[in-house]
Design a protein that fits this description.
Number of strands: 13
Distance between the termini: 81 Å
Radius of gyration: 35 Å
Helix content: 40-55%
Number of domains: 2
Order of helices and strands: EEHHEEHHEEEEEEHEHEHHHEHHHHHHHH
Shape: flat
Strand content: 5-15%
Number of helices: 17
Largest sheet: 3 strands, antiparallel
Structural class: alpha+beta
Strand order of the largest sheet: 4-3-13
Length: 501
């Protein structure tokens, strides 16, 4: 038993005991076998999906920011809210508290934290939802915490952090997704009971013993005697072969596991549970139609459409219920770090960033550092970003080229731009032009033309080919970036040759 001080008095926070009384309000079930806790504990599909959602939300970091302007913000890594949520109390980590909260929301449709006000900080302690309920109507006016010994402890609104899914019948209760799934889970529970009985009966086939029509009629005592002998001989010992009298036959009358479609019903249960929690099916092991590409898309969907609404709800509740206890509240807000989960591989990030900014995002020395290679000290360009030839920093900014090849390379770049302009002239919208841009073809053709410039300058053939390909890819990536932004990368060549598109 842990003793903590809160709102001026000592209170005993006892661990939850099995069989604790459920709060009044919604009638969860008639017996313990159908409570939400039992559904989570005994239904593999429910536990799989609930834990999947809880673990993925808990894994995300929560960052606290200050809004400077619509285009700028400052991260507050040492803000009180960030510290409190990272270390909610002396015995719980931030990951565990968030995981427990999402499990409570998935099981009960509501979750509760107790604010324990220490001298220098506020701590958060989870309260089991089965032990507490809100009082009032529409808006909570207080909370009543029922301890395992039956003692009821009233708690003011300011000392409880309350999360819930909306319930139209009980706005303060929270509607559990398991209530919607109850009929399906009850059916699955009955199927599991049948399977258990089937295997406990040593998987014997159930049936009836038939006697010929001409056989003498048995009396009631004879029927009972035969039934008792049959059960004693074959009812409790598996693997026995029955020997029947002349003319008697055994006819099976039970359904097989295949006829009962038990495998399909178990699969259907997991699909329905995953759908109720808005989780993509391949992410919880249903791989019937899964491919590498659609699993990648489902991973994005997980953090955008599946977890996105829940994360937004948590962010707003943190700001509404936790931020007022902080000293610094000026334009402060919090945000889950979803970007780290969606940023993709290093190669995908590099390609995307280059298309967005139209130039490399790393210098040569920064790239060498990632490969654990020493930096280049005697070349100042190793600490500068290379610029493609068709990139202009602003109006009137001259085109640049690496080293001393700009004079020879510029006409080749211009010729390629003219060909691209002519090839894309028939497309009306920027999106169509971007889709029709054959990057592989233009990279190959431009690299072949530029390689001749490098070789003519005395560069070794292999190095010339690599440098030409890099310049060609950067130049074409900048062209695509400008097309995506509805800019005109062909303005200069149109002025020189108006008949080209």
């Amino acid at each position: 038993m842990a003793i903590v001080q809160s709102f001026g008095q000592l209170q005993a926070h006892l661990p939850a005991q099995p069989g604790a009384a459920a709060p009044p309000g919604r009638a969860y079930a008639e017996d313990l076998a159908h409570t939400y806790e039992a559904m989570y504990r005994t239904q593999p599909s429910v536990r799989t999906v609930v834990d999947f959602v809880a673990r993925n939300v808990a894994q995300l970091g929560l960052h606290v920011y200050r809004r400077i302007s619509d285009l700028d913000r400052e991260r507050l890594a040492d803000h009180e809210l960030a510290r409190w949520l990272q270390h909610p109390n002396d015995d719980t980590t931030g990951y565990r508290l968030t995981e427990n909260l999402m499990q409570d929301l998935g099981i009960y449709g509501r979750g509760y934290w107790l604010k324990v006000r220490a001298k220098t900080r506020v701590q958060f302690v989870r309260i089991p939802p089965a032990q507490i309920y809100a009082t009032g109507w529409m808006v909570p006016t207080g909370f009543l915490w029922t301890l395992p010994d039956g003692t009821e402890v009233p708690l003011p609104v300011r000392d409880v952090v309350f999360f819930r899914y909306y319930d139209p019948d009980d706005p303060l209760g929270g509607l559990s997704p398991l209530e919607t799934l109850r009929p399906l889970l009850t059916e699955e529970s009955s199927a599991r009971a049948w399977r258990k009985s089937f295997w406990q009966n040593a998987a014997r086939i159930e049936g009836v013993v038939e006697r010929p029509l001409a056989a003498p009629k048995w009396s009631t005592d004879q029927k009972q005697s035969f039934r008792e002998q049959w059960q004693a001989r074959y009812g409790n010992v598996p693997g026995q072969t029955a020997v029947l009298d002349e003319g008697m036959t055994f006819r099976p009358v039970s359904f097989s596991a295949r006829d009962s479609e038990l495998t399909d019903s178990r699969k259907l249960t997991r699909e329905e549970v995953a759908s109720a929690y808005h989780v993509p099916l391949p992410l919880v092991g249903i791989l019937d139609h899964a491919t590498f590409s659609n699993i990648r898309e489902q991973h994005k969907n997980l953090y955008q459409d599946c977890l996105g609404p829940s994360l937004e709800m948590l962010q707003q509740e943190y700001e509404r219920q936790l931020l007022p206890d902080c000293d610094d509240q000026d334009r402060v807000y919090c945000e889950f770090n979803i970007a780290d989960k969606l940023k993709g591989s290093f190669e995908e990030q590099g390609e995307t960033l280059q298309r967005l900014v139209g130039r490399p995002v790393m210098t040569a020395n920064e790239g060498r550092a990632r490969l654990n290679l020493p930096s280049i000290q005697d070349d100042p360009t190793a600490n500068q970003l290379a610029l493609p030839l068709n990139t202009a920093g602003g109006a009137g900014t001259p085109l640049t080229a690496p080293q001393d090849y700009r004079a020879e390379a510029a006409p080749i770049i211009q010729a390629t731009l003219r060909r691209q302009c002519a090839a894309l002239a028939k497309y009306e919208t920027p999106r169509d032009r971007v889709s029709a841009f054959d990057a592989e073809r233009w990279d190959r053709e431009l690299a072949a033309d530029l390689a001749r410039v490098y070789r003519a300058a005395g560069v070794e053939p292999l190095t010339a080919a690599n440098q030409a390909l890099q310049l060609a890819m950067t130049t074409n990536a900048n062209t695509v970036s400008m097309l995506s932004r509805d800019d005109d990368p062909f303005a200069a060549v149109r002025e020189e040759s108006p008949h080209h598109g």
